[in-house]
Each structure stands twice: as structure tokens, then as C-alpha cells.
Amino acid sequence: MPAPKTYILIINGGSSSIKFALYAIGNVPERQWHGQLDRIGQQCTSLVVNDVPGLQDTSQPLRPPGTDPINVPVSDYLGAVAFLVDWLAGLGVFETIQAVGHRVVHGMAHTEPERITPELLAELRAITPIDPDHLPGEIALIECIQSRYPGLRQIACFDTAFHRTLPRVAQLLPIPRRFDAQGIRRYGFHGLSYTYLLSELSRIAGADSANGRVILAHLGGGASLAAVLNGRSVDTTMGFTPTGGLMMGSRPGDLDPGTMAYLMHTEKLTPAQFNHLVNHESGLLGVSETNSDIRALLASRATDSRAAEAVDLFCYQIKKGIGAYAAALNGVDTLVFSGGIGEHAAGVRAQICAGLRFLGIDLDEPRNKANCAVISTKTSRVTVRIIPTNEELVIARLVSQHLTCQAARFASQQLA
């Protein structure tokens, strides 16, 4: 009789969404089902749950009921956290899982998955001013589960860990050195996504491709690029916080630092108000004055010059970033698009790559429009790919490895 499966719960808290997934622990973590609380804090927060094809046992107590969107009566992130934990508890999830794995956006000096302790939570609370849009919600998820299930192991997986290999020159910020001693430097984010993309590139194209000169483009509501050489991150657009780098849905990316002083003076903005401006009122939303959703802007760009300028600026900045990273890498062999925009917006990909033939980038128009896995021409010197990302699977792998290592360590201590 086969041994019963044990499970781990994966939680990926974003600024306005919470993704979650249940994985069976094994040599390869096996996803049972997954879902998402979306549009948190807006008028129509919804819960969507998706079954993995092949899971047919309707008597399975961990199988969620139905897959249709459910309207959720919550008004803010804390309400969404409480709702989700209650909903998962109603399925009996917490009585069956061995651990909970969390995506934690900022880890400062932490580069490996860690069991969440009071000391680690205190560190995360102390650095919430660095990322006030993600860390408070992630901490709330951890604390809510901890308060109800104090004995349950919770593991933090840090988004910054992928970029721990950045060379010193890519980490340094050109400000007084005393701030570097305080840990104020370039960290980079979207690391769990980049970890998955690189492993998938190795799987589908071979280790030589993954170890070549690779530019990864994670383009969604948050957007960044990473330059990867020999499988190691050597540069990335996001810096000390996830607000910097490329223009995003509602974030501006890099700004002339004098802009902050000028706006805070002329608009009489407090630091909190300025933070709201650059995290919730800028980017595609700020330039278009209508929408942060690239799909809506693409649909209206022919009749709305503001929407057209927002899309043009977004694509222009990414094109410049690709050019810069081609210089940092001494050329480029592979360009990977991922994220909601990168995976689905053919027009955006085409506009970004237009005029980059001098780098060896040549898109196949029909394949790009069809969102094929490879969208470059056969004669393109650079292979351009679309790889859908899967941060939850990376967290599941990291948590499984962490649990295995802890079990092995405990066993060796017992034998000593």
C-alpha cells in the first residue's frame, strides 16, 4: 500500500493579489490545485481556483469546490488575508500540510530559504519601509497563520536571493559609502520568477543555452530585466526597492532623484504621500491617466494619444534596457519574455524588438502573433522565447529541499 501523500501550501502575496497552491511532496513537487485572490482593495475582489488536469477524485478532502470565480466581500488586504485563511481552513488544508512556503519580496542579507522565527519576523517588520506595498501583506499572511496554527512550520523564500551573485559594481549605488555599510544597495527582485525561467530554459534548450548570455524580461504589473551569464545574475533593473528600474503598471521605475525633492516641496507631499504617488499613481496609469492595464491601453492607443504615449514609453524603456544588458553581457544569445505582458502581448514584444536586428534579434511576425514558444526567425542570431513563469513551483521546490535538509540534519544529530 503506497504511503499517504503529505502536502505543502504555497502562498505568493502580491500588492493586490494573493496566489496560492497545494503541492504534494515528492522527488518532484506535484501541484494538486491552485488559485488566486485578485483585485484586492478594489470593488470586485474575486477568488478563482483551478484544478490540475487529472485530479479526478471528488472525495479528496483537499479538493476545493468548483472552479468558477467567487466574489469575495473584503475591502482591504487584511480582510483578504483573513478570508483566505478561513477558506483554506474550511477545506481542512492546515491539518494535512507539513509546511507553508511564502514568497517574501525583500530579504536584505537573507539568501536561502529560512524557517520563519520571531527574530526573522522582527527583521522583516523593520525593513517594511523599503517595500511598503508587499512586505506588510506578506507579514500579515504569516502572522495570521501563525496565530491560528502556532506549531506549523512556515518557510520564507526570498525574491532577492537570485541576485546574490551580482558583482560588486552592479550592487553599488553612487551615494556616500556610509549608506552602503547600512545595506543600501542594489538587490534586485522577481528572483523566484527568474529562477524558474532559467531552469526551464535549461530543460527545453539545454544547459549551454542557460549558461550563455541570457536576458530575462519579466513583464507584468511589475516589470524588470535580468542579465544572466553562466547561469548567474550579473545585473538587473530593479534596485534597492521594487519601485525602481523599468516603467511599470503604476510605478515609474527610475526617476531623476531631484524629482522627489521638487515634488515633495511644490506639492507639499509627505513621505507616505510620495510613496503612494510612485507606487500607485505613476507608470502606465500615470502617463495614460486612464489605466494601468496594458490590454486596455493597446485597445485605445489609436484614439487616445495618452494611451499611445504610455505604451510607447514602456516599450522604449525596455528596448533601452535590452541594449544596455547586451553591452553588459558582451552580446546576447537568448532573450526570454515572461509575465502577463511578456507572455501574451504580441504587439508589445514586437515594438520592443523593432530595430534590434543590429543585436541579432529578428522576430518571426506570425509566430510572435501566435505566442509561440520560439518567436525569432530561423536566421536570427538571438533566440527569442516565451516562457510562462511559475513562482509557486519554485517555492515548492525550495521548501521541499529545505524540509529534506532539516530532516537529514535531525537524523544525523540523533545518530551522533
Beginning-to-end CA distance, first to last residue: 33 Å
Structural category is alpha/beta
Order of helices and strands: EEEEEHEEHHEHHHHEEEHHHHHEHHHEH
Strand order within the widest beta sheet? 5-4-3-2-1-6-8-7
Question: Which percent band covers the strand fraction?
Answer: 15-25%
The profile of the biggest β sheet is: 8 strands, mixed
Binding site for substrate: 103
Keywords: ATP-binding, Cytoplasm, Kinase, Magnesium, Metal-binding, Nucleotide-binding, Transferase
Subcellular location: Cytoplasm
GO molecular function: acetate kinase activity
Overview of this protein structure:
The protein is an alpha/beta fold. The protein has helices spanning 77-90, 118-126, 135-148, 168-171, 177-181, 191-205, 207-210, 257-266, 271-280, 283-288, 294-300, 305-329, 339-344, 346-353, 365-369, 391-415, and strands at residues 7-13, 18-24, 30-38, 46-51, 70-71, 97-104, 114-115, 153-158, 213-219, 223-229, 232-236, 334-338, 383-386. Strands 5-4-3-2-1-6-8-7 form an 8-stranded mixed beta sheet, with helices on both faces. It has a 5-stranded mixed beta sheet with strand order 11-10-9-12-13, with helices on both faces. Mg(2+) binds at residues 12, 391. ATP binds at residues 19, 218-222, 293-295, 340-344. It holds the Pfam family Acetate_kinase. Its main location: cytoplasm.
